[in-house]
Design brief:
By secondary structure, the chain is an alpha/beta fold. The chain is 26% helix and 27% strand. Strand 12, helix 4 and strand 13 form a beta-alpha-beta unit. Helix 4 runs parallel beside helix 5. The radius of gyration is 20 Å and the shape is globular. 44% of the residues are buried. Bound molecules: beta-D-glucopyranose. Beta-D-glucopyranose binds next to loops. The site of beta-D-glucopyranose has 10 residues, from loops.
């Protein structure tokens, strides 16, 4: 079968490969891959900046934003042929650490977790893949067109869960939310904010293309280049990872505000930042800044509910380009108007 593979940490090594059928050890549920979402992490991996191959292997099958249809599943697994499924990305470490033992592998404490398509486990970027029943999530059969958005939605479902848990430290009645970055993570974070009833503002650089309209369709306010018109907000979800945007986000909340960082910055670009002033504001205003990564099963389930509650047409609008597997390289190109680009398997 065909799969997108890469030699981790070697730029230019990614290619469409012929590989053996998925090993049974990868899970008892055999899945026919339908779609694979491509994100910034995949681009980083292809540039040779991130990822680890499975022990003893040279190449890694890429891909962690999955969608497929079950071909075979054992009796009693909870899955049956024909089910629409998404595979969870992370697996707990072998020790396991406390959080992993509790099913909260997204909080793995020793860093020895593994991740499909990223860290030591083959990904979902192949025509067929296997998954363990405990790490598969079933979607409503009608979700064939947008189910590939489940993984990025799980990341923002976790972000919102964490924001709410932090908010519960006091009587917190947030009203206004700013999302920085109108890529898939930003727009999905905005969707979940709207579903929670917040007044939503989204900041991005572009003035045309689908992003401003997607925000308007959500009932949010789009800001191109400068969100000062949004005024002070209670919550910021930062989804660009860009230094100057992050720096602004850190100083932009009301008292008791929460800033949630979701973007993985490249680092190495120092900028002037008034640490003292930031510290002063944070302390005197009880502000919280926190980072969030990955998602556990609870977040995938919350994400499935969020997608079910969303307007289907709007979700379809997030997937701006679909490319066939033999032209998968095109999915990595950043074209004007791209939001989420998907490879059809
Ligand atoms: C994935 C997460 C993963 C993270 C770091 C992200 O792109 O969505 O599941 O934990 O990369 O590897």
């Amino acid at each position: 079968m065909r799969a997108i593979t890469v030699i981790p940490r070697q730029a230019g090594s990614a290619r469409l490969d012929e590989v053996p059928e998925p090993a049974e050890a990868a899970g008892s549920v055999l899945v026919d891959g339908l779609a694979l979402g491509i994100c910034g992490t995949d681009a980083e991996i292809v540039r040779g900046e991130y990822a680890w191959a499975p022990p003893g292997e040279e190449r890694l099958v890429l891909g962690h934003e999955s969608l497929g249809r079950v071909l075979e599943a054992p009796e009693g697994s909870g899955f049956a042929a024909g089910d629409l499924v998404v595979g969870i990305v992370r697996r707990p470490d072998a020790v396991p650490c406390g959080p992993c033992a509790a099913g909260e592998w997204d909080f793995c404490a020793n860093g020895e977790y593994t991740e499909r398509g990223i860290k030591e486990l083959h990904g979902y970027g192949s025509e067929r893949w296997r998954v363990e029943p405990d790490f598969a999530v079933r979607l409503d059969p009608g979700f064939e067109d947008v189910g590939v958005l489940l993984e990025p939605t799980s990341v923002v479902a976790k972000a919102w869960e964490q924001i709410e848990r932090i908010g519960a430290r006091s009587t917190f009645a947030p009203r206004r939310v700013l999302v920085t970055g109108a890529g898939p993570i930003g727009l999905l974070a905005a969707l979940l904010a709207v579903e929670r009833g917040y007044e939503v503002h989204v900041l991005d650089q572009v003035t045309d293309g689908p992003k401003p309209e997607l925000v308007r369709q959500l009932g949010g306010t789009y800001h191109a280049g400068d969100a000062s018109a949004a005024g002070q907000v209670d919550i910021v979800v930062e989804a660009t990872g860009a230094g100057p945007v992050v720096a602004q986000a850190l100083r932009g909340t009301t008292r008791n505000g929460i800033v949630c960082l979701t973007g993985v910055s490249s680092g190495g670009r120092p900028l002037d930042f008034d640490v003292g002033g930031f510290n002063r504001d944070l302390v005197l205003e009880n502000d919280v800044v926190f980072g969030t990564v990955n998602a556990n099963r609870r977040h995938y389930e919350a994400a499935a509910e969020a997608l079910e509650a969303a307007d289907r047409e709007w979700l379809r609008g997030l997937i701006t380009r679909r490319v066939p597997l033999d032209r998968w390289q095109e999915a990595l190109e950043r074209r004007p108007g791209d939001v989420k680009v998907v490879v059809e398997l």
